[in-house]
Amino acid sequence: MIKVEKLVKSFHGQPVLRGVDLEVPQGSITIIIGRSGGGKSVFLKHLIGLLRPDSGRVVIDGTDVTHLEGGELDRIRQRYGVVFQGGALFDSQTCGENVAFPLREKTRLSGREVAQRVEASLAQVGLEGVGRKYPAEISGGMRKRVAIALALVTEPQIVFFDEPTTGLDPILVNSIHHLIRDLHRRHGFTAIMVSHEIPEIFEIADTVAMLHEGRIVEHGPPDAIQRSANPVVQQFIRGEPEGH
Ligand SMILES: Nc1ncnc2c1ncn2[C@@H]1O[C@H](COP(=O)(O)OP(=O)(O)OP(=O)(O)O)[C@@H](O)[C@H]1O
Ligand SMILES: [Mg+2]
After folding, report:
1. Considering only CA atoms, which of 211, 202, 199, 209 is closest in space to residue 35?
2. Structural domains present in the chain
3. Burial of 6 by CB count in 10 Å (0-12 exposed, 13-18 middle, 19+ buried)?
4. Cα of 84 to ligand 1 centre, how many Å?
5. 132-150 pLDDT per residue, tens
6. N or C: which end of the chain has fewer CB within 10 A?
């Protein structure tokens, strides 16, 4: 369903992506791992159409989305849900207004239908009745769940998660992972997630892909990645510094 071919991107002459190839099957959970600053968020932004590559392409269901603009790009984006790194919410709006935002932007649902969808979406992340609160009034873990409700409220076919659990305690990390797994089972979306949570990611991913020095250096089911003979992969999953 998603096919990335030879994606190359530099910023100010500094290469970040040096030819990324990746295929993501429909309905699977693919988790991207790799060192901080290695280009994981930059890679996701190319998939979403927030950044354009210097060369290479992103093909979604047979459509090359790399150079789409305006209405065509919007139509593709309607099929996406995105949980940004940091779980960005508008602080000046209630959680309910935040979750309602994509429905107001992308659909013609009535006010009452929007309210029902928002409440249902908050309920499925365990936040019934939280819609009236402002982001500053709830905990960090709850804000992450609001961000997930927001990403899923339009019932997207593809959901991007950029480090949805960073900064949470281990119990909350676990509960967010279970939540993503359950929602994935229920809705069957294709998920692409960036995460540093080792070893937890091995329990929820169908495929793990490691981005290193601008390329996917290893890619496969969790057990194959854990058994990888590639020293770069082994160092990363053991939490060792590079070159030891
Ligand atoms: N818009 C931009 N303009 C210039 N440089 C950028 C831009 N976005 C990212 N970069 C650079 O690209 C590199 C990769 O950044 P990126 O945010 O993708 O890393 P990451 O793998 O997501 O790291 P982390 O795990 O810390 O989130 C960094 O050196 C960053 O400074
Ligand atoms: Mg990042």
Report:
1. 211
2. 2-79+157-238 (3.40.50.300), 93-155 (no CATH)
3. middle
4. 14
5. 999 999 998 899 999 999 9
6. C
Segment 29-48 mean pLDDT? 95
Q: Are 163 and 84 in contact (CB under 8 A)?
A: no
Report residue 163 as tokens.
């480090």
The answer, yes or no, to whether residue 243 has pLDDT greater than 70, is no
Question: What are the structure tokens assigned to 1, written together?
Answer: 């369903």
If you average pLDDT over residues 168-192, what whole number do you get?
90
What value does the mean pLDDT take over residues 91-102?
95
Nearest CA to ligand 1 atom 6: 11
Q: In this model, does residue 244 exceed pLDDT 70?
A: no
CA of 195 to the centre of ligand 2 (A): 9
Contact 144, 177 (CB under 8 A): no
Q: Pick the closest to residue 7 from 27, 26, 25, 21 (CA basis).
A: 21
CA of 151 to the centre of ligand 1 (A): 22
Q: What is the pLDDT of residue 59?
A: 95
Name the nearest CA neighbour of 152 among 172, 127, 129.
Answer: 127
**DSSP characters over 28-87:** -EEEEE--TTSSHHHHHHHHHTSS--SEEEEEETTEE-TT--HHHHHHHHTTEEEE-TT-
Claim: this prediction has a pTM higher than 0.85:
yes
Taking residues 75-91, report their average pLDDT: 85
Atom 30, ligand 1: residue with shortest CA distance: 37
Q: Is the pLDDT of residue 78 over 90?
A: no
Q: Report how far residue 107's alpha carbon sits from residue 110's, in angstroms, rounded to the nearest whole number.
A: 9
